[in-house]
Specification:
The chain has 414 residues and is α/β, with parallel strands linked by helices. The protein is built from 14 helices and 13 strands. Bound molecules: guanosine-5'-triphosphate (GTP) and magnesium ion.
């Protein structure tokens, strides 16, 4: 196993929801997921990162001393570095320096399963690499310019850059095609009118474990960050023959690199597209309240915060002071407390979803043309038909979830 150290800045920055210690602990978890053993953490109190070197000279010297005395193969940074910062730290430490985005990209690259996820990661990696190459290139071209010729390094880097750009375009085209196909499949899926829920939340909260419990899906769940990258959807039968489709999604994290948000935008479309959200929280984690804030911020960015949301406080089996926690979570409503792993309190789950969707149950009247008996049949199947009259059109009065009703009648306008 590779050994490393972590470095962060204690900036009391409002944009960071976690304390420096918690943030560095999270970085350690990310490192563990990437098979790197962290042997020491360094932090420096500073309002902003030093422009050229991220941390100050004194701290750099302290770390150089540590590195000289300990076998270290990499240095992990708790923020994103500019290409210049990364270069000067690598020179100072004489070892590999990886920033937050670099590390998360590495984990994603190891975990990507589907062809689409692999392409998305490669694209993000290329975008990450390009500005770093450009800098190198400018540096060498200046040297070359000095003697009035094109340096060999410049030529090679130009070629590299061009090849990378060609590859970027190639991947983009492939991804566009995959995404188009998915939209097509999704609009076909729409023909089966089902209410859709997305399981969302901070990474390692237990989303996949819950998905597996509820739907007998065989999604990989493990004590590593970002176990899930690709969304998986399964049907869940509720009481009274109601059905919903649940989708397990990629986890959120604080300081989520924009590069990755972009890369996984299509995956996150599952969140935007859902009718309701199940927000899973590892309530046994000391920072769970900060994690809720981070996740809610991302849900907001995805324009999904108006959807009905059920807060699911998971890992209840690990909670040592249930009364105190109950008070802490009281403002997050509606909520349920469960243990997905131990299968406890899951019996209340169906009722909780039913309650979440109850306000959408309405008695509505529709006028359906005679040639669309398929729609009438769907109303019979998914709702409670109060009355039906055969006039100019079929006048049907039905008590049904209005989200579902909308999906059913949408086919009239296609
Ligand atoms: N003690 C306890 N552990 C749980 C519970 N639910 C899940 N876990 C564990 O938490 C870890 C993470 O679970 P996952 O289901 O992979 O979490 P996730 O939210 O899907 O994580 P990502 O896909 O990485 O975002 C696993 O080791 C699970 O066994 C629970 O109720 N109690
Ligand atoms: Mg998962």
């Amino acid at each position: 196993m590779i050994q490393g150290i972590v470095i962060g800045i204690d900036s009391h920055n409002v944009s960071s929801v976690l304390s420096i210690q918690d943030s560095l602990n999270e970085l350690k978890d990310l490192a563990r997921t990437s098979n790197i053993k962290i042997i020491k953490s360094f932090s420096q109190k500073q309002k902003h990162p030093v422009p050229g070197t991220y941390i100050g000279k004194g701290k750099i010297d302290e770390i150089i001393l540590f590195i000289q005395e300990n076998p270290i193969q990499c240095v992990l940074i708790d923020d994103d570095l500019t290409p210049a910062q990364s270069k000067s730290l690598e020179t100072a430490f004489n070892t590999k320096v990886i920033d937050r985005t670099g590390l998360i990209l590495d984990i994603f690259a190891q975990r990507a399963q589907t062809y689409e996820a692999k392409l998305q990661i490669e694209l993000a990696q290329l975008h990450y690499l390009l500005p770093r190459l450009t800098r190198l290139w400018t540096h060498l071209s200046r040297l070359g310019g000095g003697i009035g010729t094109r340096g060999p390094g410049e030529t090679q880097l130009e070629v590299d850059k061009r090849q990378l750009s060609t590859r970027v375009n190639h991947i983009k085209k492939k991804l566009e095609k995959i995404q188009k196909d998915r939209h097509l499949r999704r609009s076909k899926r729409h023909q089966t009118p089902l209410i859709k829920g997305a399981i969302v939340g901070y990474t390692n909260a237990g989303k996949s474990t819950l998905m597996n419990r509820l739907t007998k899906a065989a999604v990989l769940a493990e004590d590593k960050l970002f176990a899930t990258l690709d969304p998986t959807s399964r049907k869940l039968k509720l009481k009274q023959s109601d059905q919903v489709i649940l989708t397990d999604t990629v986890g959120f994290i604080q300081k989520l690199p924009t590069l990755l948000v972009k890369a996984f935008y299509s995956t996150l479309e599952e969140v935007t597209d859902a009718d309701f959200l199940l927000h899973v929280i590892d309530v046994s984690h000391p920072c769970f309240e900060e994690f809720i804030l981070t996740s809610n911020q991302i849900i907001n960015d995805l324009k999904a915060s108006d959807k009905p949301i059920l807060y699911i406080f998971n890992k209840w089996d690990q909670v040592s002071a249930p009364n105190r926690i109950k008070k802490q979570i009281a403002s997050f409503q509606p909520n349920i407390c469960i243990s997905a792993k131990c299968d406890t309190h899951l019996e209340g789950f169906e009722d909780a979803i039913a309650d979440l969707l109850a306000p959408f149950k309405k008695t509505l009247t529709f006028f359906i043309p005679y040639k669309r008996m398929d729609i009438i049949n769907l109303f019979h199947q998914f709702g409670h038909v109060e009355s039906i009259d055969y006039n100019e059109d079929v006048t049907i009065k039905v008590t049904i979830n209005e989200i579902l009703a909308e999906k059913i009648v949408a086919s009239l306008y296609k």
